[in-house]
Each structure stands twice: as structure tokens, then as C-alpha cells.
């Protein structure tokens, strides 16, 4: 029986599978399919590549019921992660030479991928447009390469498919020749003269694409979307080159959609000027949008789960029934809810009792378990909790769900009961939570063994995450007026060292960044939210409301070096029950 939560890369799915499984998220990220340059930022597993895959012509053809040449845009997927254009030898070139070489490498790489994508997408259908393709080849492509002093490319093939393939091979050859030159420079130890062509965006890339778009197999008068995936793998100079392309605002013909894992190196052009939003580009930050106070993420996960259940198991089952909660635990929490509701009833304040019951019933239940030394028995089962724990990253839901389904089959002799038991859910999600911290950091430490500076940074981040997790747990089981705390609001600007560690935590998905109005009511403070994926590990409540603790950067910086000292700073405040400011939960759900 196929696992409905199996995670495959978008490239491993057919267009039909993608369309069946894809839940439209573009109401949240409307900038992505619209005219214009766009940065799509989000941690690993947040769905960026899936969005790009959905935008490709084979999917759009199914979705719209239109032919390729009738689509609103023609998208081309350009992966950066698995390329060799970012080679260490490029660091030897001076600034101006580096820009020229890196732009040539980027142009030839993108164009080789473009023409390869075209002949693979259209296949023999290109032969219907042989005359138009031949005209483009002779009058546009050859003319532009001859201006660069390149020997005339002669295509012995006369049909459209083969001409497109010849161009792809030719561009790949130019890219490889430049790469080999860079490697020779690295081996020789000196800057050897470069005698090859140098292609750029203005004089080669743009005119070639503008001419290519006129071939009637493409949507006429509509832009090409270049989906640059994992752009954080570009080097500094290539990043500036790509930013320079964005600054040209050539969106009538060319729209550049750039995905990053929050690791984009800079927003400077080759001339040192900064590209700015919204003038040059729009920007989407997935984690920021999905950790705002709305139900959108919850709705998206519910739709994704129910669609997968329907497609792979042929069942019409709600996500809540498929992932049931621990009924006994929920009954006890409901009893506490009613107790707190009655205790806080106030005729003059209609919502006082309900508000207190929502805020305190679950934390109080966890606190009582802690007092009876049964803290580890709290169950994190139930669709609502699993959604909250995934912390805005869809892979953080699908990956443990995949293991839960497999474990359910294993325990029931490959017979699926129609739901995942709460005991299996709880067991798997706790393991996944601990693995996210301990196993992932073990890999990070191992990767940094030969780089002492990186190792120290990783160690500081681990201390920071551990310190915050333990602080938030202490607040949860304290007498504070607000116990469900997942965030710190910095009252002072972090110095370079602290900011570097915080940025590292954001990039790796352990933290989310936002802002909040300061205590004085003027200006905003930086807000750093701990990933709720760590809730089971630190025995926190991931649901409903969440508070945030104001603290100075100096206090938070203590956490980089000593969890014990950091916790001591707040121990008296916890004993006194100091008020922790309240903030609505990211992923708020009805209770």
C-alpha cells in the first residue's frame, strides 16, 4: 500500500501527480505567478520547489486546459544547487574580471538549461515550427554570437527539435570551456589570459530571449519566467550579477523568480548599488507569512492531508479523524477548562472566563503532570497539535506523518485501520522533535570539525536554542500570568556576534524572525520565535496562544555561552510571577 505522506522531490513527480497533490497557495503568495521579479524565501521543506514545479508548462497546461502557446507565462526551471558554476578558482579573479567571468558562466548555464528544457518539453512538436525556429537560429542567435567573435555555429540538422538541441549543446560547451579555464587558473597559481567570449545579460541574454519568444510555439506577448532555485548556492559575485539582472526590470519579456533558503548572500549589483523592494522586485517570506496570526497555514495543511488521503488511499476522511487526539487527555483538559471557566466568571467581563480557560487549561494540565513527575506522559497527538508543531514548514508535518503511517502498518500486519493511533503519533513526533535538535546538530558539529570558527558558531547556536527551550518550559509550569511563551522580543539592538548566531538559527529553521511594537508604543522590536517543532522535546504547549518575553540583547547573549547563567537571570522573575506579554498564536485554531 502506497504511503500517502511519502516525500518525493517535485522533479520525481509527473505533471499529473503534481496537479492532483498541489493545494493552491498563491492566494498567500500572489507575487510568485504575477508579472515581475520575485524572491521566494523560506527554510528547507517549506514548499518552494513544489511551487516552482507547479508553474512549469506541463502542469499549467493541465490546470488551465490550454496549449503551451496559450499560457499566461512560460516557465523554465533553473536549479543552482547541483551545478559547478560556483567553483573555488573564481575567487582568484579581481573584482572586474570576476564579474565578467561569473556573468558569462551564469548566462551560458541559464541558456543551456533553457534550450534543453525547451526541446525536452516540446519534443518532436517543435518540428511543426521548423521554419520559424530556423529563422530565429540564423537571423537572431547566430547574429548575436557572431558579434562576440565566436565561430559560426553550423547546424546540420534541419528540423526544429534538433536545432534547439544543438543550441543547448553549444551553450553547454561554452560554459564548460570557461569552467575549464577557471580550473587551469587554479592549478597554475597565476591568472592566465582568457581568450574566449564573454556573454552578458544586456548584449546577449536579453536579445536572444526576446527573439526566442516570438516563435509561435510560445505564448505570444507573454513573459518567460526563469525559476532560479536555491540561489543561495551562487557565490558573492554571481549573486551580484543576478541582482543586476533584477535591477534592469525587464519584466515585459523576462521575469526572474528566485528561491532561497534564507541564505541569499547580498542584494547588491555589480556596481555596488542595492536593489530595493518594491521598485525592483517583490519578496515573499514563507515562514513569516505562515507564522502570522491567521488560520491560512492550518487550512493549507488540512487540504494537503485530505487530498493525499483521497489520491493514495481512495478515502474521504477528515484530517482530524485520520490523526485523532488522545481522548482521555483531552477529556481531562476539558475538565480543567470548565473549572477555570467557572472560577474566572465575571458578569462585567463577558469574555474573562473563556479567555482564562483557553490560556491556562492546557498549561495547567502539563504543570500538574510535571508536579507528579509525569511530564513525559503528555501526548502531542492530534491533527491540531501536529499542525502547530510543524511550525509553518509543510515537510515538518509530512515527514513524521510518513513514519507514523509506516509504523501503523507495521504494527497491524500491513492492515491499515483507517486512522493513525494517538500512541503512534505521540511516539513518532517526540522522536522527530528530539532528532531535529540533537541529530541535526550532531551532523552540523561533524561538518564543522575542520573549521574552528564554524564549530564555535554552531556550539553557540545550540546553547541558545537549549536555553530558550528550557526558559520557555520553566515559564509554562510557573505562576506567570501568561505561560505559553515561544518568543523573545529584544529591547536593544543585537551586536554582530549575537545577530550572526540568530541569523544562523533562522537559516537552519530553529528560529523565525518577526517584529513587534515596543513597550513605549513607538518603533518596533525584533522578535525571535522558537520553532514549535521543538515543543515535544522541551515539553512545551504548541497550541492556541503564545506569549513573548521582552529581554535585552545582553541578557540573550548570555545564552550563547551558559544556559545555567541565562536561566538564573530569569529565575527570580519566574518565582515572582512577572507578567509575560501576550501574543496570539501563529497557527491559531478553534478549540
Defining traits:
591 residues, 5-stranded parallel beta sheet, disordered C terminus, globular, alpha/beta
Describe this structure in words.
This protein has 21 helices and 10 strands. The strands form 2 sheets. It has a 5-stranded parallel sheet with strand order 2-3-4-1-5, sandwiched between helices. The chain has a 5-stranded mixed sheet with strand order 7-8-6-9-10. It starts with 14 loop residues before the first helix and ends in an 8-residue tail after the last strand. Helix 8 links the parallel strand 3 and strand 4. The longest helix is centred in the first third of the chain and has 29 residues, at 160-188. By secondary structure, the chain is of the alpha/beta class. It has helices at 15-21, 48-55, 57-64, 95-122, 130-147, 160-188, 201-212, 236-247, 286-290, 296-313, 319-322, 327-343, 352-371, 383-390, 395-411, 422-447, 452-476, 496-507, 535-538, 553-558, 563-575; strands at residues 38-41, 74-79, 224-229, 254-260, 282-285, 485-490, 511-517, 524-530, 546-551, 581-583.
Amino acid at each position: 500500500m502506497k504511503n500517502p505522506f511519502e516525500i518525493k522531490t517535485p522533479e520525481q513527480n509527473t505533471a499529473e501527480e503534481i496537479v492532483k497533490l498541489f493545494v493552491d497557495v498563491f492566494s498567500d503568495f500572489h507575487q510568485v505567478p504575477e508579472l515581475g521579479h520575485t524572491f521566494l524565501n523560506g527554510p528547507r521543506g517549506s514548499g518552494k520547489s513544489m511551487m516552482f514545479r507547479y508553474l512549469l508548462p506541463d502542469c499549467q497546461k493541465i490546470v488551465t486546459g490550454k496549449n503551451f502557446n496559450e499560457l499566461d507565462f512560460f516557465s523554465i526551471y533553473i536549479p543552482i544547487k547541483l551545478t559547478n558554476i560556483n567553483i573555488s578558482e573564481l575567487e582568484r579573479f579581481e573584482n572586474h574580471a570576476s564579474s565578467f567571468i561569473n556573468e558569462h558562466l551564469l548566462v551560458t548555464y541559464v541558456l543551456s538549461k533553457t534550450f534543453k528544457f525547451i526541446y525536452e518539453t516540446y519534443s518532436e512538436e517543435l518540428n511543426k515550427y521548423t521554419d520559424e525556429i530556423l529563422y530565429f537560429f540564423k537571423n537572431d542567435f547566430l547574429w548575436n554570437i557572431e558579434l562576440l567573435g565566436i565561430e559560426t555555429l553550423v547546424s546540420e540538422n534541419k528540423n526544429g527539435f534538433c536545432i534547439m538541441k544543438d543550441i543547448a549543446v553549444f551553450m553547454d560547451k561554452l560554459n564548460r570551456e570557461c569552467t575549464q579555464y577557471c580550473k587551469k587558473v587554479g592549478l597554475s597559481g597565476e591568472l592566465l589570459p582568457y581568450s574566449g567570449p564573454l556573454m552578458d545579460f544586456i548584449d546577449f541574454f536579453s536579445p536572444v530571449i526576446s527573439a526566442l519568444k516570438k516563435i509561435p510555439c510560445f505564448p505570444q506577448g507573454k513573459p518567460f519566467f526563469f525559476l532560479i532555485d536555491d540561489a543561495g548556492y551562487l557565490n558573492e559575485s554571481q549573486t551580484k550579477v543576478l541582482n543586476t539582472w533584477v535591477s534592469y526590470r525587464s519584466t515585459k519579456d523576462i521575469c526572474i523568480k528566485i528561491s532561497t533558503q534564507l541564505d541569499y548572500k547580498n542584494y547588491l549589483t555589480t556596481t555596488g548599488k542595492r536593489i530595493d523592494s518594491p521598485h525592483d522586485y517583490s519578496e515573499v517570506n514563507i515562514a513569516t507569512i505562515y507564522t502570522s496570526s491567521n488560520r491560512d497555514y492550518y487550512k493549507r495543511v488540512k487540504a494537503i492531508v485530505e487530498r493525499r488521503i483521497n489520491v493514495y488511499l481512495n478515502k474521504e476522511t477528515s484530517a482530524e479523524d485520520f490523526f485523532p487526539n488522545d481522548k482521555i487527555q483531552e477529556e481531562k483538559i476539558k475538565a480543567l477548562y470548565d473549572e477555570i471557566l467557572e472560577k474566572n466568571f465575571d458578569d462585567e467581563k463577558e469574555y474573562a472566563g473563556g479567555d482564562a480557560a483557553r490560556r491556562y487549561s492546557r498549561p495547567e494540565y502539563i504543570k500538574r503532570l510535571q508536579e507528579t513527575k509525569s511530564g513525559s506522559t503528555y501526548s502531542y497527538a492530534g491533527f491540531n497539535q501536529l499542525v502547530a508543531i510543524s511550525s509553518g514548514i509543510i515537510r515538518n508535518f509530512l515527514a513524521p506523518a510518513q513514519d507514523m503511517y509506516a509504523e501503523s502498518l507495521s504494527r497491524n500486519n500491513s492492515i491499515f485501520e483507517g486512522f493513525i493511533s494517538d500512541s503512534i503519533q505521540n511516539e513518532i513526533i517526540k522522536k522527530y522533535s528530539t532528532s531535529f535538535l540533537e541529530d541535526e546538530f550532531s551532523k552540523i558539529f561533524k561538518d564543522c570539525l575542520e573549521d574552528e570558527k564554524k564549530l564555535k558558531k554552531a556550539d553557540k547556536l545550540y546553547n541558545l536554542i537549549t536555553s530558550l527551550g528550557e526558559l520557555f518550559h520553566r515559564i509554562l509550569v510557573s505562576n506567570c500570568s501568561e505561560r505559553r511563551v515561544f518568543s523573545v522580543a529584544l529591547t536593544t539592538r543585537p551586536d554582530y556576534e549575537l545577530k550572526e548566531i540568530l541569523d544562523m538559527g533562522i537559516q537552519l529553521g530553529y528560529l523565525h524572525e518577526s517584529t513587534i511594537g515596543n513597550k513605549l508604543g513607538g518603533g518596533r522590536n525584533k522578535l525571535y520565535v522558537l520553532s514549535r517543532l521543538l515543543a515535544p522535546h522541551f515539553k512545551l504547549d504548541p497550541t492556541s496562544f503564545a506569549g513573548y518575553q521582552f529581554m535585552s540583547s545582553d541578557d540573550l547573549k548570555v545564552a550563547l555561552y551558559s544556559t545555567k547563567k541565562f536561566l538564573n537571570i530569569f529565575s527570580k522573575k519566574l518565582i515572582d510571577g512577572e507578567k509575560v506579554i501576550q501574543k496570539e498564536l501563529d497557527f491559531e485554531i478553534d478549540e
